[in-house]
Every structure is written in structure tokens, then in C-alpha cells.
Amino acid sequence: MNSHSTKYRSGSVCAEGSNIIYAWAMDAPKLNLPEDVSFDVGQDTPIKYLVVQVHYKNVDPFLPPNNQQDSSGLTLLSSSVPTSRKAGVYLMVTDGEIPSHSIEYFEVACRMPENPNLEIFPFAFRTHAHTLGRVISGYRIRNNTWTEIGRKDPRLPEMFYNATTPGLNIVKGDILAARCTMENTLENQLPTSV
């Protein structure tokens, strides 16, 4: 919890690592998964339980004297009947420094695992870049051909937006790449990550 007072403590993140299966911010609308798609959660999966982690820009409204109530939360639908397709989040991260009064491009890429049975169909694309990000775009590279997965301004509500190219698939040997355009209008150089 970020507060002017040190008497408030925050809980720790999962000690043995975590998997992001959903994230949203800035009053974004809810996520609806495509038909017959679900996240595997439970006894025979790598995800045994769910932890909701809530970040606040300012917690002062919840502290005395205001004492506002927090109604953050999620509504989840669960089923013991498996779906034919599994959902997942592929997270790409990069960092660097942005000189004062400049625009920089942060880029990251990785080759898909050598799993011949794995085929991914990106149906959504989400961005997150703190305050300096201007646009984030993601691509599939196959045989030196770049196909856009998604592109968005990270200053908009942070949600999973529909992919630019519906039906696009990603298979063994494809490369996933992302580029973030960052702008620093301040007087000093800033480190940041996206």
C-alpha cells in the first residue's frame, strides 16, 4: 500500500512465482473470453489458486478521515467441464533509459518454443507503459514477414483490446516482437520499463 503513513502494510506477492491471467486499469471494461476458451485453474494445473492484487494510484480516500469503502473485485465463472481451447497471457517486458526531451523505442523479441503441438491464436492485446509510453505494438514474424497482432496507446484504459489481425496463428519457429514508443518531455534522463 502506498501511503504517507508507515502503519499500513501490503501483502506479499506469491513466494513461488506468479502467472498473470488477467489485468486491467484506468476504468477499462470487463474481459469476455471467446466461446469455448478458458484458463486452466485448479488441482491438476500449474495454477492452484488465484490472488487478486489491487494497485492504487492514491490510497488517501480510504484512510482517515475519509474512510471510503473499497469495492474492488472480480466476478469469475468456473466450470468443471473443460473447454476445447485454453487461454493464457504471453507477457513481454523490456526496459531502458530515455534521455531528456527525446523519443526512444524500446524493443523486445523472442522465438516461440520448439513445441510442434503448440498453436497460439492471439485474440486480444494489452499495453502497459507507465506515464512515458505513447504507443505499443506487437507482431508475429514468420519468414521475415511482420504481421501486426495489436497496437494501442497505453494512456487509454488498460484492457485486453481485440487483436488487429483476427485468426492469426503463432506456431513453432515464429518470432514474437513488441515495440514501445516512449517520450520524455522532462529535463532529466529517466529509467523505465514496459
TrEMBL record:
Gene3D superfamilies found in the cross-reference section: 2.60.120.230, Copper type II, ascorbate-dependent monooxygenase, N-terminal domain (2.60.120.310)
All residue ranges annotated as the Copper type II ascorbate-dependent monooxygenase C-terminal domain in the record: 86-188
Reactions it catalyzes: a [peptide]-C-terminal glycine + 2 L-ascorbate + O2 = a [peptide]-C-terminal (2S)-2-hydroxyglycine + 2 monodehydro-L-ascorbate radical + H2O
GO molecular function, one term: peptidylglycine monooxygenase activity
GO annotation terms (biological process): peptide metabolic process
Positions with a binding annotation for Cu(2+): H55, H128, H130
Name of this protein: peptidylglycine monooxygenase
Organism whose genome encodes this protein: Biomphalaria glabrata (Bloodfluke planorb)
